[in-house]
Amino acid sequence: MSTFALLRLGGKQSWRERRAFTVLFFAVLVAVASSSSVSFFSERLHLAMAEQASEFLGADIALQGSVEATEEQLTLATQQGLAGTRIVEFSTMLAHKEHMLLSQVKAVEPHYPLKGQLRIQHEATGPEVTTQAPAPGEIWLEARIFNELELSPGDSIKVGSAQLQASAILTHEPAQASAGMMALQPLALMNLEDLPATRAIQPGSRITYRYLWQGPEAAVTKVKQLLPPLLTPQQRLVVLEEASPPLHRALKQAQQYLGLTSLVAILLAAVGIALSATHFTQSRLPQAALWRCFGLSQRQTLTLFAWQFLIIGGVASLLGVGLGWLAQQGLFYLLRHLMPATLPPPSLFTALGAMGVGCALLLCFSLPQLMTLSRVPPMRVLREQLQPMPTQA
Question: Which residues are CB-neighbours of 220 under 8 A, at least 6 positions away?
Fold first, then answer.
């Protein structure tokens, strides 16, 4: 009998004996549903948190140090097709009339930021506006600086030796992952072209040079591998996992907890599959002997019953993936106030992986019993006391 004929016969037998597979069906359904729901939830949450971390970093990868990047380092990023921008950070006094305030100053290039958005207000009570970096001659200040220095939008402020126009109130700025102690200081954002005129950087000044890069995932991974040997002792490579360590740790712990919960459900489902397979095997010994009398070999008998299990397992796996999707959607709905507004969709490989878990459990815990069915002697049709040949494990 051909494989296709065995498949067709197995399908008919599965439909005819569907009630006998009830426990097996629901065991696989629970295993796949629990596995897929956790996988969907973890993947979508990880992608959302990674996107937030990239905004917190301002890019996909960053090079930070107290010295400027070498030509070799910049060439490596360019050769891999990464788009980049440069930031110079330092602390200095901002002055307006008789008022002075120590502030953190970021000098950025026009296409800053690579990821995330800058938001400003032109008036204290005005709406927020999304925009790019300030133009030459302008500086954007946080509201605290306006209050401390008694400034109004449009006033002139002294930064080192340069006079710049405080044209807007800075309300949101990405790339805050490595501010360190300077994060306690109010922030001022200026154009990098105005930096030489300020003369704020002198020998001995504490300066942080940051190079932000963005590009395809494969290119970013390549740079992560090739750049570390080129780093000087004053430099370090900042990746998304280091952008927000508390967020990364919380996400990792949540994934471990959910994975443990899924593992318990899978183990219980495995016990259900094993018990169901044992019961099915004991009740199908006469039928297996009858198929042997009809001329099926041991291999064909094993294939016939294996097709039945795979058909039931496949249907249960498909339904389990759908149930897992609904479960994680419900979980995100319950936690909607704690989650990002938009969540990226999961990949198809996650669903296939969950279905693979169900099929693997089904085969591992039912195959020994199916091999017992394939070893039933044809004479058992006449003598029920005959037992199958023992299976060598």
Answer: 60, 61, 82, 213
Least confident residue range of 282-286, 342-346, 354-358: 282-286
d(CA 33, CA 41): 12
Whether 292 contacts 378, CB under 8 Å: yes
The predicted pLDDT at position 107 comes to 92
What the block records as the tokens of 345 is 């969709």
Minimal CA–CA distance to 32: which of 334, 358, 384? 358
Q: Name which of 312, 386, 336 is nearest 20 in CA terms.
A: 312
Q: Alpha-carbon distance 91 to 70, whole Å? A: 24
Type of residue numbered 235: Q
* Rg over CA atoms, the chain: 33
Tell me: pLDDT of 1 over 60.
no
Q: Which of 326, 106, 325 is nearest to 198 (CA)?
A: 106
Contacts of 20 (CB under 8 A, 6+ apart): 280, 283
- The pLDDT tens digits of the residues spanning 84-142 come to 889 999 988 899 888 888 888 999 988 888 887 888 888 877 788 888 888 899 999 99
- DSSP H helical segments within the chain, as ranges? 3-16, 22-57, 71-79, 143-149, 195-198, 217-226, 240-243, 245-283, 285-293, 298-334, 348-374
The proportion of the chain whose per-residue pLDDT surpasses 70, expressed as a percent, equals: 78
Contact by Cβ (8 Å): 223, 82: yes
